[in-house]
What does this fold into?
Amino acid sequence: MKNVGEAPTEELATGERSTRNRVARSILDHGPSTVADLAERLGLTQAAVRRHLDSLVTDNVVEAREKRVYGTRTRGRPAKVFALTDCGRDAFDQSYDALAVEALRWIERNAGERRPSPPSPATASRPRPRRTGRPSSPPTRTSAPRPSPRR
It folds into this structure.
């Protein structure tokens, strides 16, 4: 991640900037996350994660949203999830265009336009059935009909 703004010397000495980058990277990799999720993923206390999130919100890298609740809501304050802003997403070096082009090249190499091979001499002389777009008729019976049961 490109560091947003200049990091004061005390931040560089204590490693706070890199922890903030880890918090932002975790949100980028895993999507909108709660403080508890981030703390568990990064091995930090929830208080430490909140402190870094406050700085990231101030720098407009992350925004807080209300967590969507499915079913009945529990008591207490609604949980918040933190998501990257457009500015925060742009701070990471992402080359999705290059990835998309490479994926299209791979598809073309591995499953690109397949031209039908010319017919072999053995199958070239046989007439091909016409396709009419209608379902084929049911198979015809080649054996003699069975006698009907007597009454």
About this structure: The helical segments are 9-14, 16-30, 35-42, 46-58, 86-90, 96-111, 121-124.
